[in-house]
Design brief:
The chain is α/β, with parallel strands linked by helices. It is built from 6 helices and 9 strands; from the N terminus they run E-H-E-H-E-E-E-H-E-E-H-E-H-E-H.
């Protein structure tokens, strides 16, 4: 007998409209008392909580940012594990993306910082049901500098050639 089911969200649990089907909701609700159901995703916690609520599994942990931020929410938010992209790399990407006009969104814990409310931000809002804080990457890095914060996730969107150049 299974003790836990850990499932991805996008392309696995959600249908093409990025919604939970009634069938999925009914099945998970029918097993949740016997088998723990844990959501795992590259998403931030806020983009997963509404799904937990629909499935009635809010007492289960969340595996966010592909394992970079794992939290329990039984008695408030408790961080079980956290791995961040170092500040120096975040700062490099913020400067590079600013100079090249590449959309770079930075995610830390339950915060998402987008450089503008552009097509990329609007697409992500549509996909995740979460609003971004509009904050230039350079200004964000300046505010993070004194504590050398890092990001749990950086999502760069734009021309494929620019993404390849950044990767290289």
């Amino acid at each position: 007998m299974f003790k836990v089911i850990c499932t991805d969200i996008d392309g696995t649990l959600l249908n093409p409209e990025r919604e939970l089907s009634k069938r999925t909701i009914d099945i998970i609700r029918s097993i949740k008392d016997d088998i723990a159901v844990v959501l795992a995703s590259s998403r931030m916690p806020a983009a997963m909580r509404h799904l937990q609520e629909s499935l009635d599994i809010v007492d289960q942990p969340l595996i966010c940012y592909n394992g970079g931020y794992i939290i329990s929410q039984r008695e408030g938010v408790k961080v079980l594990d956290s791995v961040k992209i170092p500040f120096t790399l975040c700062e490099f990407i913020a400067k590079w993306s600013h100079d090249k006009n590449l959309h770079a969104g930075f995610y830390l814990e339950d915060d998402w910082f987008a450089p503008a409310e552009d097509q990329w931000t609007k697409r992500e809002i549509n996909n995740t049901k979460v609003q971004a804080s509009i904050f230039s990457g350079l200004d964000l890095m300046e505010s993070w500098k004194s504590q050398e914060k890092g990001a749990h996730k950086i999502m760069c969107m734009g021309e494929p050639k620019l993404i390849d150049n950044l990767k290289n």
